[in-house]
UniProtKB/TrEMBL annotation:
Location(s), subcellular: Mitochondrion
Keyword Repressor belongs to the record: no
Family classification: Belongs to the bacterial ribosomal protein bL33 family.
Protein's name according to its UniProt entry: Large ribosomal subunit protein bL33m
Tagged with keyword tRNA processing: no
Source domain of life: Eukaryota
Keywords (A to Z) from UniProt: Mitochondrion, Ribonucleoprotein, Ribosomal protein
Pfam families for the chain: Ribosomal_L33
Length: 59
């Protein structure tokens, strides 16, 4: 009997560094480095740096 295979990618939340609370969700490979990207934040109407957030426990 074969065991379940584990996912190679995970879903991560990219949070705006402009402290607006705006975020994107995206996927990345498990073994990869943390993501950061410059994307549009509609709350400040400009492009800002988004960084991968720390994982939080589900409630």
């Amino acid at each position: 009997m074969a065991g379940k295979s584990k996912a190679k990618s995970i879903i991560v939340r990219m949070i705006s560094t402009a402290q607006t609370g705006y975020f994107y969700t995206t996927t990345r490979i498990k073994q990869g480095a943390s993501l950061s990207a410059v994307k549009y934040d509609p709350r400040v109407k400009s492009r800002v740096l988004f960084v991968e957030s720390k994982k939080t426990a589900k409630k």
